Amino acid sequence: MKNPVASYRELASLFSMLIFINGNMVGEEDANVSVFDRGFLYGDGVFETLRSYKGVIFHIDNHIDRLFESANAIYLRIPFTREYLSEVLYKTLRENNLMEAYLRLMITRGEGEPGLNIDGCTNPGIIVIPKAFNGYPEKTYTEGISAAIVKTRRIPPSALNPSIKSLNFLNNIMARIEARKLDASEGIMLSTEGYVAEGTVCNIFIIKNGIIKTPALSVGILNGVTRSIVIGLATKNNLTILEQPFPPDEIYDADECFIT
User: Fold this and answer.
1) What are the two backbone dihedrals, phi and then psi, of residue 4, each rounded to the nearest 5 degrees?
2) Do 12-135 and 139-259 fold alike per CATH?
3) Residue 165 designated active-site
4) Which residues pair with 92 in a beta bridge?
């Protein structure tokens, strides 16, 4: 008699995504990490979320560069080349037959002795999780989304470098929970000084009288890849764009607002 567990796994594998974990491509049902991995224990690691369009990963080099910058900032040495990471990302797309997708690339510090000391953490882990992108609801494109200014403040640069895309996303999670309780799709966080900082997963732009404005990096925000592209395109097309701190009142007074 055939093992029912094995039969279930065979069936599940037909419908599940394949996850890349530490050199192996496995089904979702077999995608496991050690409970001693510091990424699991402490959120000790870094990540990037990438988007593919028609099978091409958008600005992949910029994302990989930022991954290395985040890792260097937390004294995590990535033992893989940029070329290898690129190959892994595209392999994950191909193995899942995806053209339009999200890819979450994570590097953990790996396993080590229990406690905060990183001694003995010599084998960082690598994980790539794919997710098919099927577009947003139609009304998102015609009506936009709802957002709320939340009470949860963005962690200040003096406490944690905002350029680090850490696996510990609790600051953003708490802000999103608060936004959802306010029936908003996105939460806008302010800096500890009261300036507009960023959304839980996005950068913010406003337009007033033809002038585009976005919070300066000094406010304590992530330098988003798409944010940089928007700034570059605006400059190239002779549009006035300012990177500077501004209070939340300017959002309400803006002619337009968009997020990236």
Assistant:
1) -65, -30
2) no
3) yes
4) none
Residue-wise pLDDT tens digits, 222-232: 999 999 999 99
- Going from the C-alpha of 47 to that of each of 7, 58, 116, 233, the distances in angstroms are 34, 16, 20, 26
Annotated domain spans of the chain: 12-135, 139-259
Q: How many helices (H) and strands (E) does the chain have?
A: 8, 13
Fold of 139-259: D-amino Acid Aminotransferase; Chain A, domain 2 (3.20.10)
CATH topology of domain 12-135: D-amino Acid Aminotransferase; Chain A, domain 1 (3.30.470)
Rounded to an integer, what distance in angstroms lies between the CA atom of residue 247 and that of residue 108?
36
Note the pLDDT of residue 113. Answer: 84
The C-alpha atoms of residue 174 and residue 225 are separated, in whole angstroms, by 23
Residue 211 near residue 243 (C-beta atoms within 8 A): no
Q: Return phi, psi of residue 93, to 5°.
A: -60, -50
| Predicted confidence (pLDDT) per residue in 190-202, tens digit | 999 999 999 999 9
Q: Flag whether the pTM goes above 0.70.
A: yes
Say how far apart CA 169 and CA 227 lie, in whole Å: 20
Token representation of residue 26: 């496995």
For residue 17, the one-letter residue type is M
> What is the per-residue pLDDT across 21-46, written as a single tens digit (0 to 9) for each?
999 999 999 999 999 999 999 999 99
- The active-site residue out of 131, 151, 165, 213 is 165
Q: Facing residues of 128 across strands?
A: 20, 105
Strands in 196-199's sheet, in edge-to-edge order, are: 147-149, 186-190, 196-199
Chain mean pLDDT for the chain: 94
